[in-house]
Amino acid sequence: MAKKDVSPLEFELMEVLWRKGEATAKEIQTALAPERPLAQTTVATLLMRMTQKGCIAYREGNSARMYRPLVPRDQVVRRKLDDLVQTVLGGDISPLVSYIAEHHRLTPEQIGSLKSILKSGKEE
């Protein structure tokens, strides 16, 4: 995993790279623009920081650097969830489970999956 966690803005940038696989700074900026217009210099700074963190890498393309993710999305999500549970919830997942159950419609498949996960956790 990368040495440091990614910020919310860096996560948005990573989402573009996970979706595209590889992209230039301009392509990333364009993909983010509808929801979050960013200056070209901001995108360049984020890409530099994320490269230093070990989250992404680049290769020299024909006319621009091509950036790609080095860490899978599920690994970053797991780390962010671990941080949430430990720092915000003090290690207690009950408030998170209660929130999900009360504020999100779960399909029967999702409920079944959660039951399986909880059951397997009890057996360990």
Summarize, please.
The chain has 124 residues and is mainly alpha-helical. It has helices at residues 8-20, 25-32, 40-53, 73-88, 94-103, 108-123; strands spanning 56-60, 65-69.
Q: Could you explain the architecture of this structure?
A:
The protein has two domains: 1-92, Winged helix-like DNA-binding domain superfamily/Winged helix DNA-binding domain (Arc Repressor Mutant, subunit A, Orthogonal Bundle); 93-124, no CATH class. Strands 1-2 form a two-stranded antiparallel ribbon. The mean pLDDT is 90. A hairpin with a 4-residue loop joins strand 1 (56-60) and strand 2. It contains six helices and two strands, in the order H-H-H-E-E-H-H-H. Helix content is 62%, strand content 8%. It has helices at residues 8-20, 25-32, 40-53, 73-88, 94-103, 108-123; strands at 56-60, 65-69. Helix 2 packs across helix 3 (40-53). The chain is mainly alpha-helical and 124 residues long. The chain is elongated and about 55 Å long.
